[in-house]
Fold these 2 entries.
Entry 1:
Amino acid sequence: MRTRMVNLILLHHPRLPAIALAGAALAIAGILSEFDPYSASAVLPPCFFHALTDFYCPGCGTTRALHALLHGNLTLAMQMNPMAVIALALIPLMLWNNLHPDRAWIARVSDARIWLPLVIAFAVLRNLPWQPFVWLAPG
């Protein structure tokens, strides 16, 4: 019953997922503009994966990268998590693909079969202790 109700809502409001994503993005931007992830008393949690394993996950540094982007520092954002910054730039294309599925090149950019190996490779490479891979580690 609940699934049918959700499907009916989405049928009547096809842009609801995009609106929800935009609302979440605004909320995250508001939080990151108010709270500094670099301070010792930061209210934002650290990466649980890194705390447990001492390895960087593909998302490590994303909070600090988003904070840097909100404050206009693209260089620092790329130092924190280059993949997150690049993926963030591609999100509008992925949303466009959901609204206009006839664009084949956008569909290729948003295909998980492309992103999954890239994310896994990024996670492995950013934990290697040699140059140039240490540049992929946050900070």
Entry 2:
Amino acid sequence: MKKTIIIFALLLTTTAFSQQKLSVQDCIEMALENNIELKNSQLDIQKAQATKNEARAEYFPTVSAQALAFDAVNPMLSFGIEDIDNAMVRQTLYTLFAEYGVNMGLDKEYSFIQNGVVLNAMATEPIYAGGRIRNGNKLAKLGIEVAEYQSKVKEDEVRLQTECLYWQIVALQEKIATLDQLDRLLDTLDKDLAGAIEAGLAMPTDQYKLTLKQNESRLNRKKVEDGLTLMKMALAQTIGADWQTMELADTLGLETNPTTMFMDVAEAVSQRNESHLLDLSLQAERLKKKMTLGEALPALLVGGSASYHTILENSKPNAMVFAVLQVPITDWHKTHFKLKKHDLDTEMAENTRRDLTEKMELQTNQAWFNLEQSWLRITMARTALSDAEANLKITEDYYEAGLVALSDVLEAQTLLKQSRDELTDSRVEYRINLMTYRQLTNR
């Protein structure tokens, strides 16, 4: 019994989950959580942080230790009487060795360094490196900012893509509802027409015209349903959900005049993440130039070492401190051309920033114009829909009175469908344009 209750509870939970409706904000949050490119951009931030920590380590001393043990087949250094080039001296030493050497325990040849152990530890600290360490850390810090802004740009792209898919699905659902209403009107006409033909009040050709309109409606429904399926699959892939059980909670609400949302173009562009990326790119080029200049400047480091070996007899530990001053002399000619390249790269970065800034201003203006146009389209579509509804009502009344033909009623129904689809499309377009403009103005 207990097992049955548990299984029943699980089924209820699964059913509740499968029927859960998703708002547009739910879909955006799921997309941000599941998007692979966005996850990789977060990893890029961590990589940039690791690079910064690596660059920071250059401020601290470098400590190393070495240990060497060896045992050679032959001594690395040997010296004897035979190695003396002067024949007279060599002969004299042979005579002395023959007379006194054996009694004194001397050898004709001595060898050194055949085996032993060498231990060494050393620490160095850079005092000045031409500014390369300081500028390298600044460059690494810029890398973190670049990765963060790139992640924000990708996040905006995911938000816009998700919301576009969401509202396109809502639009297709609205169009299916419009087709449902049209089919009900056609079914009513079909019933009335059958009686009218039997009574001799309508021609059989009217039935043919009505059948064509019904077939057209059926084909339109198939197209909309197929498009809805594809859109749901695309949204489900974006947010990581099952498209077959996915239901959308939000509907197209009332829109407001976008006049109050206008923002100065120059101010809007200056606040964009892309503008910050362009500024950082220019700063990076300037820091790279300083890094190159540092390669041609003197470098000073201090250090100390301690060592011990057993290579020679009576070996003793030893230690020392040292300072190294390195002054590049012949690198200035090469560095001059490197700096020239950096100057050109900096100029190119400035040109790119100016060019892209102008294009972003153009893009922002275009987004505002699109938003205004979509608002105007909504107002005209509402008026057209009201006129189409009134026209259908009058045409149906005239048809019932026998004053107009069936084709006039079918045409009025078609105009009503087109007006409703136009209003739906304009409202979805408005929401997408509004989302785009808000992103471009950071609102």
